[in-house]
Design brief:
By secondary structure, this protein is α+β, with helices and mostly antiparallel strands. It has one domain. 32% of the residues lie in helices and 12% in strands. The protein has three helices and two strands. It has a two-stranded parallel ribbon with strand order 1-2. Strand 1, helix 2 and strand 2 form a beta-alpha-beta unit. The chain is globular. The N and C termini lie far apart (36 Å).
């Protein structure tokens, strides 16, 4: 990928015109350190853009590709969109039964 990452990296496109953002990160992610996301959120807020972040303990990169985190992050994304007025009502999903996982 080389330097092309800058073309699609949110961290390289922070502006007051950026859309409201929500980001999820596993605290054990080896590709994106927690500090990268906290710095990004801080810069977004400086630019006047809402940026919500959620960290998930004990999981690595891609953790949200399977349950229980798949459903949990969808619920949080739904709540975020409702808070912006882009969706209405409570999330249609319910958290998975953790006893099964």
């Amino acid at each position: 990928m080389g330097e092309r990452y800058r073309e699609f990296s949110p961290a390289h496109h922070i502006a007051r015109t950026a859309p409201p953002t929500i980001a999820f990160l596993g605290e054990l992610d080896k590709l994106i350190p927690v500090s990268v996301l906290t710095d990004f959120a801080a810069e977004m807020k400086k630019a006047g853009v809402r940026c919500d972040v959620q960290f998930y303990p004990g999981v690595e990169h891609g953790f949200f590709n399977k349950d229980p985190h798949f459903t949990l992050t969808l619920i949080e994304a739904d709540k975020f969109l409702v808070s912006l007025g882009w969706l209405q009502g409570p999330p249609p999903l319910t958290p998975p039964d953790f006893a099964q996982h």
